[in-house]
Amino acid sequence: MNKYRTHNCAELTVKNSGENVILSGWVHKKRDHGNLLFIDLRDNYGTTQCITEKNKPFFKELEKMQLESVIKINGTVSKRSPETINKDLKTGEIEIIIVSYEILGTCKELPLPVFSDQEYAEEIRLKYRFLDLRRKRIHSNILLRAKVISFIREEMNKVGFIEFQTPILTSSSPEGARDFIVPSRLNPGKFYALPQAPQQFKQLIMVSGFDKYFQIAPCFRDEDARADRSPGEFYQLDLEMSFVEQEDVFNVVESLLSKIFKKFSKKKFLDDKFPRISYKESMLKYATDKPDLRNPLKIYDLTTIFERSDVNFEIFKKLVKSGSIVRAIVTKNTKDKPRSFFDNLDKWAKLEGSSGLAYFTFENNKKLEAKGPVGKFFSSDALTEIMKVTGGKIGDSIFFSCGKETDVLQLMSSAREKIAQELNLIDENLFAFCWIVDYPMYETDNITGKIKFSHNPFSMPQGKEKDLNFENPLEIKAYQYDIVCNGVELSSGAIRNHKPELMYKLFEIAGYSKSEVEKKFKGMINALSYGAPPHGGIAPGIDRIIMLLAEEKNIREVTLFPMNQTAQDLMMNAPSEISEKQLKELNIIIKKK
C-alpha cells in the first residue's frame, strides 16, 4: 500500500462509508465552528472535507496551520447528513473523521490567495506561477490542454498520420518574424536559430517519402506579446500531407477540429460545414481576414454613391475624387435608439484615431428621407440606391467612413465588433468556423512600394504555370488558406510549391536573385530538385484552440509557464546575464551602451 494515500481527493463516496483511509494533499480552506474544525483537503483530482473535534489533541495544531501546507490525514469515511451534502463536490456526500495527521510540507505566508480565482497582479502571478497553477480555474485549463493534446494524437494516429520530431537548432529564416539566435561554440562567429515553425523540415519529410506527418511542435518567435500570442514560444499542431489538394487538407482539419470542439465544449456550431470565404470577399464584407461570423453585421462599399450629383456630402465627395473609399455598416431597426447611441459610436471612432463615423436612419415621411446629422445631403433617389446596395429598410441605420483603404478597413472592422457589442448581437454559446481562401500571392509594401510575398513564400500559385500572369503579379492567387473561429485565426496553411524552377520565378518577383534563393533556402531547393511530391499542410495553434475551449481572453491563462509582456520569466529570472567564461567559450563580446 502507498504510504501517502489509499485514495485521491476525488474518489471517495458513500460506498466507502466506515472505511479507514489515508489522504494527502494541500490545506485548501479551513472553517472553525468552535467545537468543530473543517479542513478542505485538495489534490490534483479534487477536494475532500475533513473534520475534527475540539477535544482532539491535534485540534489546535490544525487550527493554526498555514493554508497550502501539505499534510497526510488518516481517518474514517463518514456519510454526511442530508442538509450538509455539497452537490458541487464529487466527494460532497462524505467527510473524513480525522484520526491522525502528519505534516509533509510546510508553507510560508502566501503572496497570493490560492483558494479563489480572483484577478491578481500579473507580476505576482508569474513570479509565483507554481502557486498560481494551484488555483482551480487555471489548474483546470492546464489539465484541459493536456487532454486536448492527447486526444489530438489519438485522432491523428487513427487517420494514418505519423508523429516525427524536427530539429530545434536550425538556420535563420529571412521570412516571417524575428528569430531567436543561438551562438555556436564549435563554429565561432556562426549562429543557429530556434525554429519559427518546422516549415522547411516538414516539407523535407514529404520529399523523404513519408506520406502523412504531424507533430505537437514548439515554435519560437521573437515577437511582442499580445492577448492571443505569447512572447517567445508557442505550440502548434503541425501537419503535412503528400499527393493532396487544398480540399484534402480541409477535410482532415475540419473533421479534427469538429471532434475537438464537440468533445471538450458544450457550445453549438454556427455551421457544421465550415464556410469557404475568399480573401477578397472577407475584406469587403468584414474588413478583416479574421471575421467573427457570430456577428451578423456586414460591411458594404458605398464609394460610387458619392460620385452621384444628388449627393451633396462635399467632404466625402472630395475625398472619393482623390482616391478614398467609403464603407458602411447597416444596423437593423435602430430607429428608436437614443441620440446618445449614435453619438457615442461617433466619439468612439474618433478615439480610435479616425475622423468619426457619419450616420443616418432611413425614414418614410411621405417620401424616403434620412434622419441624422448628414441625412440632409442625400436625395430620395440616392437613399433608394443605398438601400438597394445594403439591403437596408425603413427604420435601419447606416454608419459609414471615408478615407484611405487601410484606415477605413481597420476602423470598420473594429466598428463592426463595437456595434455588435452595443446591440448585444453576438451569441457567446456558438463556435463559428470558416476557411479564408484565395489569398493573393503578393502585395505591395506600404513603405517601400515594392512587391513582396503576402503570406507564405513557399506556396503554390493557383492555375497552370504557363497561364500565370507574371507581368501583373498582384493578380496571382495562391493556394493559401486560414482557418478562423470566432474572429480568432487558428492557423495558416498552404499547398506547397514543389517545383524549383517555378520557385525561382516567384522569388525573383519579390526581389530575390537565384543565388540568394539558393543560399537562403539551400536545403529546401536542393531537396526539391530530387523528385518532390505535390504536398500541403497547415498548423493550428494549440494555445488558441485551448483559449477558445476554456473561454479565456488571454493566452497566459492556458500556458503552463508563460513570460510577461516584455518576454521575461519572472519565476526563473530569464533572460539573465551569463559569465565571462561562457561568453569567452562562445567567442562573444558584449558591448555596453
How would you describe what is shown here?
The protein is an alpha+beta fold. The chain has 16 helices and 24 strands. It has helices at residues 59-64, 122-127, 129-132, 136-158, 199-207, 246-264, 279-286, 314-321, 339-351, 380-390, 405-422, 500-509, 514-520, 522-528, 542-550, 580-585, and strands spanning 20-32, 36-42, 47-53, 70-79, 94-105, 162-163, 181-183, 191-193, 212-221, 232-242, 268-269, 276-278, 299-301, 325-331, 358-364, 368-371, 397-403, 430-431, 433-437, 442-444, 451-453, 480-485, 488-495, 535-538. The strands form six sheets. Strands 6-9-10-24-23-22-19-12 form an eight-stranded mixed β-sheet, sandwiched between helices. A hairpin with a 3-residue loop joins β1 and β2. The longest helix has 23 residues, at 136-158.
Features:
alpha+beta, 16 helices, 5-stranded mixed barrel, 593 residues, 8-stranded mixed beta sheet, globular
pLDDT average, as an integer? 94
The radius of gyration over CA amounts to 30 Å
Major sheet: size, sense and barrel closure?
Answer: 8 strands, mixed
What separation lies between the terminal Cα atoms?
62 Å
What's the layout of helices and strands?
Blueprint: E1 20-32, E2 36-42, E3 47-53, H1 59-64, E4 70-79, E5 94-105, H2 122-127, H3 129-132, H4 136-158, E6 162-163, E7 181-183, E8 191-193, H5 199-207, E9 212-221, E10 232-242, H6 246-264, E11 268-269, E12 276-278, H7 279-286, E13 299-301, H8 314-321, E14 325-331, H9 339-351, E15 358-364, E16 368-371, H10 380-390, E17 397-403, H11 405-422, E18 430-431, E19 433-437, E20 442-444, E21 451-453, E22 480-485, E23 488-495, H12 500-509, H13 514-520, H14 522-528, E24 535-538, H15 542-550, H16 580-585
Parallel strand pairs: 3-5, 6-9, 11-18, 12-19
Antiparallel strand pairs: 1-2, 1-4, 2-3, 4-5, 7-8, 9-10, 10-24, 13-14, 14-17, 15-16, 15-17, 19-22, 20-21, 22-23, 23-24
Helix pairs in contact: 4-15, 5-14, 13-14
